[in-house]
Amino acid sequence: MLLLNVLDLTPCSSIKDLVKQLKYAAFNARRLGKAFEILEEALQEQSFFFIGLAGALTPSGMRYLIAQLLNKLPNSLVVSTGANVLHDIAASLGKPAFHVETLEDDISLSRRGLMRIHDIVTSADAYVEVESLLKKVVEELPAGSYASYEIVKALGTMIADEKSFIRTAYERHIDVIVPAFIDSILGLQFMSLTSVKKGVKLDQVKDLQRILDAQFIAKEKSMKTAAIILGGGVPKNFIYQSTLIAEKPLDYVVQITTDVPEYGGLSGATPEEAKSWRKIGEKAKAIVVYCDVTIALPILVSALLQS
């Protein structure tokens, strides 16, 4: 057993220098420092990155950070919830989420056409704007079956906002898969629009094939693979399960979550558990940072951009 001193941290003007110190601290500061170290190594090894976006991160102020992360990691694939895509589009169309100075009761908010996401609200108008853009996409699509990433790519072509992560993904040729597309308002809108325009259909098997292709290509090229899991949920499982078919366990994993393993849910399942499934390699470098993504992500992305 090797014993190392816990070091007193020194204030820094550089976020990168501060984060590099954190691995010498304790608790989740140490985990965050190790997460940065793992991501730096994965970058140096020219790994292929799978980025999982759970929940509704984009309306919380994270969307430009995610866009910048994609600029830093152009060799990647994104797996997201529909909510993140929808709110990214809404903000790009001038309908962002916003704070309210004095939080009203939820029934009052509902009557004003406002929907609450914890401590922020979004308006019904935002969803109308998104549906209008989606309608243009659907009307321009030739008859056929489309994966969610093809629909998101088409939406990305219609957005000019540089802070949009789906616009950045389009420009960087990064596919954004939404495996639970129909489990979102975006999916409901698509279903409604395609019931009017016949011949355009959703094919989520193509989404699965896309991520499997990425895994097999990485395997054929002997590339290392890395996963950045922001939250957990469907994006985490979709990324992890793709390793099984390709028999290509992940080499690097960083997960940021507030979920814990004791309740048996996938979101809180540890990297060690994933090793028993051979989703993560035996010698892989993996860490879970138990922290709110809206705290840890700005720190990690800022440090990576200074790398």
Automatic annotation (TrEMBL):
Gene3D superfamilies in the record: Deoxyhypusine synthase
GO MF entries: deoxyhypusine synthase activity
GO cellular component, one term: cytoplasm
One Pfam family in the UniProt entry: DS
InterPro entries in the record: Deoxyhypusine_synthase, Deoxyhypusine_synthase_sf, DHS-like_NAD/FAD-binding_dom
Highest taxon of the lineage: Archaea
Keywords: Transferase
Similarity field: Belongs to the deoxyhypusine synthase family.
Protein name (database record): Deoxyhypusine synthase
High-level lineage: Archaea, Thermoproteota
